[in-house]
Structure of Transporter substrate-binding domain-containing protein:
Amino acid sequence: MRKLIVWATAALSALTVVQAYAQSPALDRIKNSGVLRVGVKTDYKPFGYLDPKGAVVGLEPDLAADLAQKLKVKLELVPVQTANRIEFLQQGRIDLMIATMSVNDQRRKVVGVIEPFYYAGGTSLLARKSAGIKTWEDVRGKDICGTQGAYYNRAVAQKYGANIVAFPGNVEALNALLTGSCVGFVQDSTLLASIISSGEAKWNDYTTPLPVQDLQPWAIAVPIGELNTAYGDFVRKTVTQWHASGYLIEEEKKWGLKPTEFLKENQTKLAAGK
């Protein structure tokens, strides 16, 4: 009952935000068309991918659906890739983007970065369950697969003394891990979560045993001119409510992701109104 009240209050509050501020061009278009167009990934399970029937599903499509429901409009999911997601937003082909976008100064110059952030990824390690790796110190002196140019490599090598064996891409590095050339593969925690949740039998004996380090936050993005309008404020308020109500933690669990301190800390902080 308490959870129902929280959700009802959140929905009413989000709708009130939209009504209370001056209309924005984005909100005018969304309301007039009755459709919210959201750019999402379709190749990054469980955040956004195609199910066996070809439907776009995942944690991020769920977030998009909740935004559309609060606006009382239909949802159109538009497949995007890392290479074109910002371009789609700038060209007006989508109204917002929820597509595993990490935040940096350059991106803040071209899109409206919504805070609070809704998720975060960082440095993680994929290893065979029998490898006996329980702490980051356990990689000292061991061969660890990596991809050339990844920032994770230097940090793990310098801080923990791992011997990084760098490969041109993820496919080569993962094949080396499977053949025993390395005892682990260092990469972004969300990519490794995607591998573990893929359901492929070859990964059944593998796990991500270590705490994630060097978190890089992910943000929803709106057109840069909409960041400080009623539309941007609506999205900002909604993400805050997702954290405060525990909705993002529920989504994390629903899609088989390991609990993250990032969501726990934000839920505690924002539920207390800090």
Observations:
- DSSP finds eleven helices and 14 strands in the chain.
